[in-house]
Amino acid sequence: MSKVIVQEFLALDGTAQAPGGPEEDISGGFQHGGWSMQYLEDSGMDWLRKGINDAGAYLLGRRTYEIFAGYWPTDPEAPPDIAEQLNTKPKHVASRTLTGELEWQNARVLEGNLPESVAALKEEDGGDLLVIGSTVLVRSLIQHGLVDELRLVIDPLLVGGGKRIFPDDGALRPLRLVEHEVTSTGAIIAVYATN
Question: Residue 193 to residues 5, 75, 149, 150: CA-CA distances in angstroms?
Fold first, then answer.
């Protein structure tokens, strides 16, 4: 059985919106895009690469899919080893608005009910499903008990608002710390199992 693994960059206040660049996601008037890059050093990049390389497939929300599809297949500045993985492996996109064939190689829209579709993907052979970004999707996956592991880089700054991945529904969800590291920039890499 495959696991659903969420890999996220978080500010200390829980913000996950637009860690990579100023124009990555300005929805809601967010003005701090790229906040994580000052903390990304070698061990953080190694962690990022390992997650992407080890995944059997990717599970993405619509907005993250659109951002990635506009960057990874065409940008000459994209790290080639990461681009190759993201461009060639299967990508399952959770969307209420996208339909039909998707342009990015090996990408398809999930059909039907999200919890049932993801549960079915977990039953398939093909390796673990890695979720990157996709704040709305991650919240839904957590609410439905479909996340097996959270891989977080927690940066030492407060962003003061923006999108978050954790549901605000009053539910208690214990986690188990299985791995951690403090980087030279003060970021904490933490891996939590949900069961």
Answer: 9, 34, 4, 6
Domain count for the chain, please give it: 1
Name residue 152's beta-bridge partners. 8, 190
Q: How many helices (H) and strands (E) does the chain have?
A: 5, 8
pTM over 0.70: yes
Q: What is the mean pLDDT of residues 143-155?
A: 97
Per residue in 15-28, pLDDT tens? Answer: 999 998 898 889 99
pLDDT digits (tens, 9 = 90+) for 81-98: 999 999 999 999 999 999
134: exposed, middle or buried (C-beta count within 10 Å: 0-12, 13-18, 19+)?
buried
Q: What is the CATH number of the domain that holds 185?
A: 3.40.430.10
User: Are β-strands 149-155 and 188-193 bridged in parallel, bridged antiparallel, or unpaired?
Assistant: antiparallel
Which of 68, 58, 53, 63 lies closest to 90 in space, CA to CA?
58
With vertex at residue 42, the alpha carbon angle to CA 195 and CA 58, rounded to the nearest 5 degrees, is 45
